[in-house]
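Write out C-alpha cells for Sec translocon accessory complex subunit YajC.
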Amino acid sequence: MISSIILQDASGTLASMLPFLAMIAVLYFFMLRPQMRKQKKEKSFQSEIKRGTKVVTSSGIHGKISDINTNDNTVTIETGAGKIKFERSAISMELSKKYLSPVKK
C-alpha cells in the first residue's frame, strides 16, 4: 500500500513538471538555438574576411577592407571619408550583390 502511494506521488510530480519542461524545450528550439547558430555563422564570417571585401560594420558604416592586422585582431576599412580602423568583431556582414539586388515582385 505504501509503495502504491509513493508511485502515485511520483507520477503526479512528473505530470506537474511536464509543462515546465515543454516551455524550456520551446525556448531552446525557437530562441536559443537559432541565436547560437547565428553567432557561430557570424564568427566564422569574421575569421574568413579577406582584403578587398565590401562589408558593413555593426554601427552601419559601409566600406571596403584595405588592411588586416592579425597581431591585434583589427581591420582597416576604406570608406568615403577615409580609412578607419575597427576590431574584427565589429564587422557585421558582407555587402555583396545578394544584398544589393532589387526585390522581385
